[in-house]
Amino acid sequence: MLAHGFSGSTEEWRHLVLPLAARRQLVLYDVRGHHLTTAPEDPAEYSIPTFAADQRALMLPLGIERAHIGGLSMGGMIATQFVLDYPEMVASFLLCDSTAGSGAPESEAGRWEHMVRQYFTGMDHVAAKYGLAELGERQLQWNRTWDPHWAEMSESDDVTRQRMTRITLHGFLGASRPIRERADLLHRLPEIKAPTLVLVGE
Q: How far apart are CA 185 and CA 176, in angstroms?
């Protein structure tokens, strides 16, 4: 079970993980509010625990009682919540480019979390005032200016623009708030007993 990142979908990362299907059955899905999955208009219907419960509700009718659980960025937050809330359903845990909480405000993690909250607040403001297409163009401009690896990544501009056509405004805003307001799970990490792989890239 693999959960994608914020404002993403199964479409844009399918080619990265399909080789795993040679050895394992893969279940990829669009998280609530994203692409082909329902996007409730009520912001109260979005939270990281709700996303984790959605994943469980998808697995059970498919007859999946236990699986390797993984996620990228926001999907990693969902995976962490899932592993903590439903440990009996976890064979192993794959965490990619994600975070479990804020830690002390003066710590490196705390400073990073503060920046993440500011970033998502700013994105919400631009999306609500100017629309998702404008937000996508501003993200492209920022990435071209500040990300030294952006030019090396093929089709990065197209992927960014396509993201904004695969999510509604209320889905975008609904999924953004839980990232900013999610619970700090650092104190619960010792509960995780499943074999775990953490991947982080610059």
A: 18
